Amino acid sequence: MQLCTLWGDMSADRASDQYPQANVCDECIKHHADSEDSPIVAVNGSYDSSYGEECALCEIHISEE
Ligand SMILES: [Zn+2]
Q1: Cα–Cα–Cα angle for 26, 17, 47, nearest 5°?
Q2: Distance from the CA of 60 to the center of ligand 1, in angstroms?
Q3: Average pLDDT in the chain
Q4: Which of the ends of the chain has fewer CB neighbours closer than 10 A, N or C?
């Protein structure tokens, strides 16, 4: 699990809504690494529990990774 920046709501006013941060599991990061329509903008670093304990894309729990 890594903390990532995702593509959000581009019509939103705030940058935090346009580019929300969320935890994404390693499988999803790997899966989207080469795809052109990846929902991931950037991988920021290590997992941060303040953003929740589940992958934002597949909803796997940190304990199941
Ligand atoms: Zn995932």
Answers
A1: 25
A2: 6
A3: 96
A4: C
Quickly list DSSP for 1-65.
-EEEEE---TT-SSHHHHS-EEEE-HHHHHHHTT-TT-SEEEEEEE--GGG-SB-TTT--BGGG-
Q: Which among 9, 7, 13, 52 has a CA at the least distance from the CA of 32? A: 7
What sign does the CA torsion over 33, 37, 38, 41 have?
positive
Six-digit token pair at 45? 């670093």
How does pLDDT run across 2-19, given as a tens digit for each residue?
999 999 999 999 999 999
**What does the radius of gyration of the chain's CA atoms come to, in whole angstroms?**
11
Question: Ligand 1: distance of its center to the CA of 27 in Å?
Answer: 6
